[in-house]
Every structure is written in C-alpha cells, then in structure tokens.
Amino acid sequence: MTSLGKLIFIDIHSRNPKVSFSNDLQTSYVESLSFAFQNLFHMPFDIIENYGNTIHTLDISHNKFCRNLQFLSEFENLTSLNLDYNNIDDFTVFPYMPKLQLLWINHNKIDQLYPFIKNLYESMPNLKYLSLMGNKAAPSYLNGGTFYDYLQYRLFIISWFPHLVHLDDRTITVEQYEEAKRLFKRPFLESLSENAPLPDCLKYLHKKLANMFFKPILPNKQQSRGTNFVI
Q: Do you know which InterPro entries this protein is assigned to (predicted)?
C-alpha cells in the first residue's frame, strides 16, 4: 500500500490513463482518486486545491471521516463517492452535491433513518445509486432484522429519492415506487417543491415546519401484512 506522500493518481476511465505523483503536487487531469485505507480524518488541502475541479469519482473508504465532510463541496463535479467503513452517523450532514449520482456508505454508524435520509435527500437530490448495507438502520438477516423490517426500510428510502434506480444490492422496480408513495405520503409543500422550484423564503419556512411537526412513522409490525410488497 502506498502512503499519502507517494500516491499514484490514475484516471481509470480514460483509454490512455494519465499518471501523476502527489509528492510534487503537479496538477494533471484526473477523474478518479482513491484515498482508501489512509487513516484520514480530513482531506489534505493540496488535494482539494489541485484536483477539486476535475474529480468525478472519489474513494475515501476505510478511513475515519464522520461529520467533517464540508470539503466535499469543493469537488464540484463529483458524481460517485465511496465512504464505506468510516464513522458516518445519524447526525452527519453532507454539503449540497446536486451532481452526485452514486453514494456508497456501507458499514458506517447510521442507527436511525430519520432525519438522516431527509438530510441526505436535501444534500443529494439526484442520487441514482445508494447503498447503506452494514448499518444498523439498514435491517437485514445479517444484523437481526426481519424481512418485514427490510421492506419498510427499503420503501421508506425509495419514497425520498425520486431518481433512485438501485438501492443496496437490488434494482428498484416500478411497483416498489408505487408502494413507497402509498405508504409514505409526503407533505403538500414538499411534493410541490419536487416538481417546481420554490422561493427561498418558502423553502426555509417549509423546512422549519417539517422539522417541528413532521416525522414519518414506519408501519407497525403488528399491523396486517396483507399488502403485496414486491422486492
């Protein structure tokens, strides 16, 4: 494994990969960058300065990032982010990243879906691929969750992200979207804002009211399970 002082950056998406070395910090066009397994708490400033405008894919898995993620806003063209095996928790808030389409946050410390998923949607409204496996908030047979728990979890997340096509290890179906909308109806202003932009003052008012009065309630496990969920 290479150290930070001598990392090799390779554009893995190019037919003719370009290689540069970080010890001289000379900028070259790089689309993919990996700092996995580096025991990092924060992103080195020189990397942000030299590569923030070109990076599309960033892998910072197996580190110690938690709530200090504002540096991600400097990667303006980021479309893919891997944060597996870090310390992301319920109170981690990401910066606004409208171009991000893929987010991997498997095996972190996310215990509760709400308000984490709500905040995640506000930061990354255009996500297409999301994976939360290995977190307590993502129930499965691996962490003691039942199949019904898994269905609730899956449909709740789908209800928040209108562009999502793949969640965890499965593609999202049309039937799942319909069931998610039926189970987790959204407030009027919120659903309206998804189809038409709202003035900043109304967005602020809606956010304040939502935080005060609205918290989605997952269906009770004791309720009838006659609904046909499609996985």
A: Leu-rich_rpt, LRMDA, LRR_dom_sf
Helix-then-strand count for the chain, H and E: 6, 9
Long-range interactions of 227-230: CB distance < 8 A, separation 24+? 227/179, 229/151, 229/155, 229/179, 230/173, 230/175, 230/176, 230/179
Residue 102's DSSP bridge partners are 80, 129
Return the number of other C-beta atoms located less than 10 Å from residue 136's C-beta: 16
Residue 56 in 3-state DSSP?
coil
How far apart are the C-alpha atoms of 174 and 146, rounded to whole Å? Answer: 23
The whole-number mean pLDDT for each consecutive block of 10 residues of the chain, a chain of 231 residues, reads: 38 38 52 94 92 94 95 96 97 96 97 93 97 92 74 92 95 92 67 51 51 48 41 45
* Interhelix angle 147-160/116-123, nearest 10 degrees: 30
Count CB neighbours of 209 within 10 A: 12
Tokens 């179906």 appear where? Answer: 173
| pLDDT of amino acid 213 | 42
Could you write out the DSSP letters of every residue in 159-213? Answer: HH-TT--EETTEEPPHHHHHHHHHHSPPPHHHHHHHHSPPPHHHHHHHHHHHHHH
- Pairing of β 57-59 and β 32-34: parallel
